[in-house]
Design a protein that fits this description.
Blueprint lengths: L4 E6 L5 H14 L6 E7 L4 H4 L5 E4 L7 H10 L5 E4 L12 E4 L4 H4 L7 H17 L2 E4 L2 H11 L6 E3 L13 H12 L5 E6 L7 H14 L5 E6 L4 H12 L4 E4 L4 H10 L2 E4 L8 H8 L4 E4 L4 H5 L4 E3 L4 H12 L2 H16 L3 H22 L1
Parallel strand pairs: 1-2, 1-4, 2-3, 4-5, 5-6, 6-7, 8-9, 8-11, 9-10, 11-12, 12-13
Helix pairs in contact: 1-15, 7-10, 8-13, 11-14
């Protein structure tokens, strides 16, 4: 009697965009691999979150990028048909087939990180290793795929583009009702612009704040600015920095649930995405899925993801950013057109499509392995 095929997924990273990528992918992956034992590795506190999406949960308290993960991941996945890494921190000593998702090459492409210790001694070596070692590479955009081939000589034949999916929690809510909930919950006094991301330099929050400061000077009725930042220790420092700068109208929010984030998107006048570098730019599609227009940077993967359904600006130009924001603020017709077009675009980034494409890759890798045996 043959042993069942087993796919092991490293699902420890359930924060930021990678966490959302894992959770949306898992929503329908199991049902597309009916004859496969699906095992997920999680942190101890995450078992209940992951359990509904897989056959088996293995809890492992082990830091991301740590030496310990390199020792323990291969042991957990021993004998598995495929090991799936949702990030480039693959288990180096894993002997069987690997499928790795490489979301971006930010540490190699963004000038602010190039030459840093982390880029030189971890990011670049691990990106090169994972792209060379993987049986198949998944990227969320053609931009990232192209960068992998150009910068790391990745094999284009084994590199597939599967765009990130939008979770079902992000859908259009009635503007007035969502605005009431948001204003009451977060102490806002009126309409607002929205930024969703982190303080990482490539997210370009600094230029957005400069642009917003100038916008407030030019327009007395300028809306407030809400920053939804990742829950890291540096987040509280942003609050302090804004106070020192004497900036009014800016609100920092942390530890926001997906349901609350969906309401924040729905009630916003627009979402501003100013990044210098993005492998996909999930807030663009999440905002569109909630029926809210987007002003975004004309850089990296963002034009590919947003298409003709956003207003663009150069990320290094505060003036262009202000102009894009003003276009949306003062044109109800443009707001309505982009909101409608964005809803259609977001619908193409479905969980079903992503899960189906990923399952197909896993089946191909398993089939190839069985043929070789």
């Amino acid at each position: 009697m043959s042993l069942p095929r087993e796919v092991v997924i490293d699902a420890r990273w359930l924060r930021t965009g990678i966490g959302r990528y894992i959770l949306t992918l898992l929503q329908e992956l199991k049902q597309r691999l009916p004859d496969t034992l699906l095992t997920c590795i999680t942190m101890p506190a995450q078992g209940q979150t992951i359990a509904p999406f897989c056959d088996r949960v293995v809890q492992m308290k082990c830091g991301i990028y740590s030496v310990m993960e390199q020792a323990r991941l291969p042991m957990v996945a021993r004998g598995a048909s495929v090991f799936c890494a949702p990030h480039y921190n693959v288990p180096v000593f894993r002997k069987g087939p690997l499928v790795v998702t490489i979301h971006d090459l930010t540490h190699l492409l963004y000038s602010g990180y190039q030459g840093s210790i982390r880029a030189r001694f971890y990011a670049e070596p691990m990106l090169r290793f994972s792209s060379a070692r993987a049986s198949r590479i998944v990227t969320p955009s053609h931009y990232t795929r192209r960068m992998l081939v150009e910068r790391l000589s990745a094999d284009p034949e084994k590199t597939s583009v599967i765009p990130c999916a939008v979770s079902d929690v992000f859908y259009p809510q009635a503007k007035k009702e969502s605005a009431k909930r948001v204003l009451a919950s977060y102490g806002l006094s009126g309409p607002y612009l929205l930024f969703v991301g982190s303080e990482a330099p490539h997210k370009n929050l600094a230029t957005l704040l400069v642009a917003y400061q100038r916008l407030r000077v030019r327009h007395r009725d300028a809306p407030e600015l809400v920053l939804v930042l990742s829950p890291r220790p540096t987040a509280s420092r942003m609050d302090m920095n804004l106070s020192l700068m004497g900036m009014s109208g800016v609100h920092c929010l942390h530890e926001i649930s997906d349901q609350s984030l969906a309401s924040l998107y729905s009630a916003a006048l627009m979402t501003v995405m100013p990044s210098f570098e993005e492998g996909f730019g999930l807030p663009v599609i999440e905002s569109m899925a909630c029926g809210t227009p987007v002003a975004c940077s004309r850089a990296a993967s963002l034009p590919e993801i947003a298409g003709d359904d956003a207003v663009y600006f150069a990320p290094d130009s505060a003036e262009e950013m202000i102009s894009a924001i003003e276009q949306l603020l003062y044109s109800e017709k443009l707001q309505q057109r982009l909101a409608a077009a964005g809803l259609k675009r977001a619908a193409t980034y479905s969980v079903s499509r992503a899960a189906s494409a990923y399952a197909s890759i896993l089946s191909t890798v398993i089939g190839t392995q069985n043929t070789l045996q």
